[in-house]
């Protein structure tokens, strides 16, 4: 069983993790510009360690009108495992449908939006989450496997999150960034939540990269 010190990050390690994310997200933004033909701006990520029981409250404080937002979740597995949550404010899905339909050369019909909302949100989850997580794993010299994404409304998210394994006292590594599309009124939040079992691996990988 790992020692308590092996399940916690020092301030230096947290700084190193944030720098790793900053580099990874900068590289991911460049890749996304090629894939989507639009520049996706990713803010400097924030990193914190909190208890799993505090995750919902943390996200609620970060996201206005959380009850009505759309959340795409994608779990990832590898040397470190966790879940990524792509949070879209209410109404953004309509703009995404209109933007991508126009970008593909189609004529946007408002009546089609309801059928396309979920599909577009899931696709955005695949693209944004895959790029960000993939770059983090790449920097840490590891590989990731992804589970199919899941989409839910904010009002159902708490029950969905509470149903997962793990206790409220388990450590969660919370990584948060804002994203927006250049020149478009489309933005949202990305939350990466890693389990406490990931801490020893992350500490080892960060030590190797930064000589800690």
Concise structural overview:
The chain has six helices and eight strands, in the order αββαββααββαββα. It has one domain (4-210): Chemotaxis protein chec, CATH 3.40.1550.10. The model has no long low-confidence stretch (mean pLDDT 79).
Write structural notes for this entry.
- Strands 1, 2, 3, 4, 5, 6, 7 and 8 form an 8-stranded antiparallel beta sheet that branches.
- The two termini are 22 Å apart.
- A hairpin with a 4-residue loop joins strand 3 and strand 4.
- The mean pLDDT is 79.
- Helix content is 44%, strand content 24%.
- With 212 residues, the chain is of the alpha+beta class.
- The chain has one domain: Chemotaxis protein chec (3-Layer(aba) Sandwich).
- It is globular and about 50 Å long.
- It has 6 helices and 8 strands.
Please name the defining characteristics of this protein:
Chemotaxis protein chec, alpha+beta, 6 helices, 212 residues, 8 strands, eight-stranded antiparallel beta sheet
């Amino acid at each position: 069983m790992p020692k308590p010190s092996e399940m916690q990050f020092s301030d230096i390690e947290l700084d190193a993790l944030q720098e790793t994310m900053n580099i990874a997200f900068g590289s991911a933004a460049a890749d996304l510009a090629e894939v989507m033909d639009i520049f996706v701006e990713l803010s400097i990520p924030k990193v914190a360690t909190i208890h799993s029981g505090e995750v919902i409250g943390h996200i609620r404080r970060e996201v206005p009108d959380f009850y009505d937002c759309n959340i795409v979740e994608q779990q990832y597995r590898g040397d470190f495992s966790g879940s990524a949550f792509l949070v879209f404010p209410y109404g953004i899905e309509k703009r995404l449908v209109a933007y991508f339909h126009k970008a593909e050369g189609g004529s946007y019909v408002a009546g089609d939006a309801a059928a396309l909302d979920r599909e577009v949100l899931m696709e955005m989850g695949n693209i944004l989450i895959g790029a960000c997580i993939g770059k983090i794993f790449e920097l840490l010299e590891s590989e990731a496997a992804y589970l199919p994404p899941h989409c839910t409304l904010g009002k159902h998210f708490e029950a969905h999150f509470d149903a997962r394994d793990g206790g409220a006292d388990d450590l969660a590594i919370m990584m948060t960034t804002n994203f927006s599309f250049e020149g478009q009124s489309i933005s949202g939040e990305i939350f990466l939540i890693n389990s406490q079992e990931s801490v020893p691996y992350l500490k080892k990988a960060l030590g190797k990269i930064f000589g800690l």
